[in-house]
Amino acid sequence: MGKCGQAAMVKPAGNGIIVFAGTSEGRFLYEFCAKSGIRAIFCVATEYGRQVLCGAEASGPVIRTGRMEEVEMLALFREKKPVLIIDATHPYAVEVTDHIRKAAERYRQDEQIQARVYYRVLRSLSEAEDRAEEDAAQGKADVMYCPDMEQAVAYLNRTTGNILVTTGSKKLKELCKLMDYADRVYLRVLPNPAVLQECLDNGFQAGHVICMQGPFSEEMNVAVLQEYNICYILTKQSGRTGGYPQKITAAGRCGVKPVVILPPQETNGVSVEAMKEILKEAVTAGAAG
């Protein structure tokens, strides 16, 4: 097994596994493959994503860095001929999931593969239920739920006061539709130079961009909310792994109203634990390892 991210050290071509990672679930699968000696290629969009994926692992599967469109994914599948294509990207990355699913199906048809190839990894239903219970128990934080960023922005445009945005950098242009966004909005984003530059290019003030890697403790969230005199926190319902309960609890303590963007509803997928079992079966069948 090769050093983390060094593609030349591992050769899964012809019978391998390709995993698209971008969440804690992707990291769990990376750690599982590393410890189990399972050969795989993990695809992430950025160099920062590669560093997060590696974590403390001194060695592990190949990591391919770079954003891919559907045609590039299909080219990769045709080259490597994987028996498993695993989508562990973020629940909110709907377009990426659509590209992976379509490319995987095209590959399966072209190669005339009868068995299932594509698997979508979902966050467990039990965790989703836990989140709902947490929200109900934390009624002191008056949560406003929105189905998407557009409706969240429409709601916030009817309000006044500073806003802490913790939804990442992918929807910056939609945030620019907020009235007085340059003065009202404080962005908490990944500590990545390219992300910071994108924020500045979209008109956000440097002093309003907080570059930090989460998830964050309740106390850290409280400190940020108080430091910047925040009235609203715009976040995704990202579950325990994304530090969602800590944000809601901190908001309740500070009298801040959470505006929560709900995740897309997905039912056709498997849990991390189920995916691990599928990987084990693939190894046993001689697909990898």
Summarize the entry for a quick read:
With 289 residues, this protein is α/β, with parallel strands linked by helices. The chain is built from 12 helices and 11 strands. It has 2 domains: 7-122 and 266-284, Rossmann fold (3-Layer(aba) Sandwich), CATH 3.40.50; 125-261, 3-Layer(aba) Sandwich (Rossmann fold).
Task: Give me the secondary-structure topology.
Blueprint (H helix, E strand, L loop, with lengths): L16 E5 L2 H13 L4 E4 L2 H8 L7 E4 L4 H11 L3 E5 L5 H17 L7 E3 L4 H13 L6 E3 L2 H8 L5 E4 L6 H4 L5 H4 E5 L3 H9 L7 E3 L6 H10 L2 E7 L7 H11 L2 E5 L10 H13 L5
Parallel strand pairs: 1-2, 1-4, 2-3, 4-5, 6-11, 7-8, 7-10, 8-9, 10-11
How does this model look, in words?
Helix 10 crosses helix 11 (about 245-255). Mean pLDDT is about 85; it is low at about 5-15. This protein folds into two domains: about 5-120 and about 265-285, 3-Layer(aba) Sandwich (Rossmann fold); about 125-260, Rossmann fold (3-Layer(aba) Sandwich), CATH 3.40.50. A six-stranded parallel sheet has the order 6-11-10-7-8-9, with helices on both faces. A five-stranded parallel sheet has the order 3-2-1-4-5, with helices on both faces. It has about 290 residues and is of the alpha/beta class. It has helices spanning about 25-35, 45-55, 70-80, 95-110, 125-135, 150-155, 170-175, 180-185, 195-200, 220-225, 245-255, 270-285; strands at about 15-20, 40-45, 60-65, 85-90, 120, 145, 160-165, 185-190, 210, 230-235, 255-260.
Helix content: 40-55%
- Cα shape: elongated
- By DSSP, the count of extended strands is 11
| Helix/strand order, N-terminal first | EHEHEHEHEHEHEHHEHEHEHEH
The total of helices stands at 12
Name of the CATH class of the largest domain: Alpha Beta
Please, how many domains?
Answer: 2
| N-to-C CA distance | 10 Å
